[in-house]
Amino acid sequence: MKVPVKVDGRELTLSNLDKVLYPEYGFTKAEIIDYYSRIAPVLLPHLQGRPLTVKRYPNGVTAQSFFEKNAPEHTPSWVRKVTLPAPGSTKNRETIDFAVVDDLPTLVYYANLAALELHVPQWRVDEDGEALPPDMIVFDLDPGPPATIVECCEVALMLREALEEDGLTARPKTSGSKGMQLYADWDCREEPSDYAKKLARRLEKEHPEQVVSVMTKKLRPGKVFIDWSQNNPAKTTVAPYSLRAKDRPTVSTPLLWKEVEGCERPEELVFTAPDVLARVEKRGDLFGRA
């Protein structure tokens, strides 16, 4: 069944609204579109100007999925698109036509495509579609079992202190999966990947029982991997307030530092779409505060 709707003056056709995309939770496509529509006021500022990569789950989180960088051929003409070089493309493309989610109609359009996960780089494009220097730096904290997000919180506090020493204010969020991320506004004092790598290696040297800075799996059990490579211009990180394709509709959720400081159990930092809507209503956009 197809339903024509108008969103901020744009005409869209929504489809399969009763399809359950999170079977264990019973969360439907209609509820996904509703979540993204209601979270849009705090989500859109973190997407605007950033080339979009999505992970689509047309038949739900337990079925096949695919990453999509190139805007689909049937993308409406009113969706902003930017053509950017694609070095190292796995499909041998020289360029990619990225969508940029600058408004609510575009966000709803992608939600209707079952684009559950929204991923963006640490840089924006200007009005002409030219890439700007990175404006953020990110540290992706990935726990190696039996470590959990509890251990990630401990490492996040180390990172916060180190960043403060360099005049940078860190903002934490959950990944919506098993780990978390720390962001800071970036002033281009050097290449962000170089800076992040040096800081990750320093913390590994200072806390060898807790931290690892390389991806080698055999080194990671019980430790937190600080993935500094997310600052490569070709890489993306899940956006604040994006859903994740887990058993439940969990969300990459901005946190208060007191939540990081007080975390004792992993379940304390698991938030679903309804949880996040309630948090935002109470606290606003925690990620909008430096």
Automatic annotation (TrEMBL):
InterPro entries: LigD_pol_dom, MtLigD_Pol-like, NHEJ_LigD. Residues 28-287 form the DNA ligase D polymerase domain. The keyword Ligase applies. GO terms for molecular function: ligase activity. The keyword ATP-binding does not apply. Transmembrane segments: none annotated. It holds the Pfam family LigD_Prim-Pol. Keywords: Ligase. NCBIfam families: ligD_pol (TIGR02778). This is ATP-dependent DNA ligase. It comes from Nonomuraea phyllanthi.
